[in-house]
Amino acid sequence: MKIGDRHYRSIWLEDGEVRIIDQRWLPHDFRIATLGSLEDFATAIRDMWVRGAPLIGATAAFGIAREMARDPSHQNLDRACALLNATRPTAINLKWALDRCRAALAPLADEDRAKTALSLACEISDEDVEINRQIGLHGMALIRDIARQKSNGTVQILTHCNAGWLATVDWGTATSPMYQAANADIPIHVWVDETRPRNQGALTAWELGAHGIDHTYITDNAGGHLMQRGDVDLVITGTDRTTKSGDVCNKIGTYLKALAAHDNGIPFYVALPSPTIDWTVGDGVAEIPIEARDGHEVSNIQGSASDGGIAKVRVTPSDTHCGNPAFDVTPARLVTGLITERGISPASAEGLAAMFPEHAQ
């Protein structure tokens, strides 16, 4: 996607260095960070310099590549995979990418690992871009169908969190159908949930604004009201892990949006690249580990201060304990369909197995 007149991915190689958009400062300040050591990559994932399941996976792959260039021993490969895998427990793409790196690198001689690891990291990134582009094309068909049925043509879409190009290597998951629709001149308007406590909706608003897509930023609690009033035609979210039975784990608050959509008869779709499917898990509520993050993310909020600087302010009493579960699970029964790179699948074990038979085995 473009920022100004330059095309950016969220992670890329430049002059032999791994560069990322440091998302801690967005949307108020655009900063680029260089990741060198394995600890840099672990910190970037854990502390959300990068975020979003697909981008986390790609970042981990580049982290392995950089570490293999320093020490390609099998012992170090195991150590690097273990360190990175411990950074974020919920997003399955992290484990998927590390398992793929280990499987490709472990059989090789030490002298062959660095080159292969870097090639694999680039391959994982390029694959993610194409997967998300295909998700966008399949999702755009849904949007076009709704536009044809409406008298005014404008499709009202609600999204939660940021499943945009900043959460992937490019295009995004939930936003990819929106970008494809806008590029095809299908009129859309996007309701952007703020998504407390980290306010990732601001990132979505920043992205959509840069692409010229009409949107409105709303509080998390406004979504149900808008659905009741008939102001939402379609909900599309992303996911950090989807079970083989179609349960969806996504940013906290997604479950409530699915309940409101179900109550109001509004289609609720989840856009997901196939690496986000966890084929080892059947019951999302019982089996997916939910990351509990620091309560300071709830008690404090970051924004642009009146002097133009970026500042944090406390919004709670100083002695208030804050809980911060980062994700929730939406049962498959509330999901209208799963938008994948191969098409739209029912949110069910049978639907996913038919769409991806090679994994369902």
Strand adjacency order, main sheet: 8-7-6-9-12-17-18
Report low-confidence residues grouped into runs of 5 or more.
Answer: none
CATH superfamily of the largest domain: Translation initiation factor eif-2b, domain 2
**Radius of gyration, whole Å:** 20 Å
What is the first-to-last residue Cα distance? Answer: 36 Å
Query: What composes the largest sheet?
Result: 7 strands, mixed
By DSSP (H or I, 4+ residues per run), the number of helices equals 13
CATH topology of the largest domain: Rossmann fold
Percentage of residues in strands: 15-25%
Structural class: alpha/beta
Number of strands: 18
Oligomer: single chain
Give me the CATH architecture of the largest domain, please: 3-Layer(aba) Sandwich
| Mean pLDDT rating | 95
What is the CATH first-level class name of the largest domain?
Alpha Beta
Instruction: Give the proportion of residues in helices.
Output: 40-55%
In total, the number of domains comes to 2
User: How would the global form be characterised?
Assistant: globular
